[in-house]
Design goal:
Blueprint (H helix, E strand, L loop, with lengths): L1 E2 L4 H11 L4 E5 L6 H11 L14 E5 L4 E6 L6 H6 L2 H5 L4 E5 L13 E7 L5 E7 L9
Parallel strand pairs: 2-5, 2-6, 4-5
Antiparallel strand pairs: 1-7, 3-4, 6-7
Length: 142
């Protein structure tokens, strides 16, 4: 799916309609729009909180009328042990929304039912997004 920034709300709705669980892994190079897309997902899930990148805090929590959203940015994570130390497993199995930027470091601890979003910047500066499901992430849309 290719999109412009002006399409972000429609894209967020489409993603949420097609995910198979509350765990969304967001992959993309620096500047691809991961945080921008996550802001739209948080809004679409019904939170009135202003989403921002949790680069230094590692996790931000947003509240909806009937749920929580945990937004992780694992860019600064040094190793898998750090994730275990701050209780990543508890978040992953909390039955709340968990949206993770830079999930590469913790792939071995991710639940089978995770969803993967790959964001690519196209030459015309639009973005392409592909939604895939774990465990095989074989480029088949969920």
């Amino acid at each position: 799916m290719d999109y412009l920034l002006s399409d972000i709300e429609v894209v967020a709705k489409s993603i949420l309609k097609n995910v198979t669980s509350k765990i969304i892994l967001v992959y993309g190079y620096m500047g691809a729009g991961k945080t921008t897309l996550i802001k739209a997902l948080v809004k679409e899930l019904g939170s009135i909180d202003e989403a921002s990148s949790p680069t230094f805090s590692i996790v931000n929590e947003y509240i909806t009328s009937n749920d929580k959203i945990y937004h992780f940015d694992l860019y600064r994570l040094k190793n898998l042990e750090e994730a275990y130390n701050f209780g990543m497993e508890e978040y992953l199995y909390s039955n709340h929304w968990v949206i993770i930027e830079w999930p590469e470091m913790i792939e071995e601890m991710l639940p089978e039912e995770s969803n993967r979003l790959d964001i690519v910047i196209n030459k015309d500066l639009t973005r392409s997004i592909e939604l895939n499901c774990k465990p095989n992430f074989n480029k088949q849309t969920c």
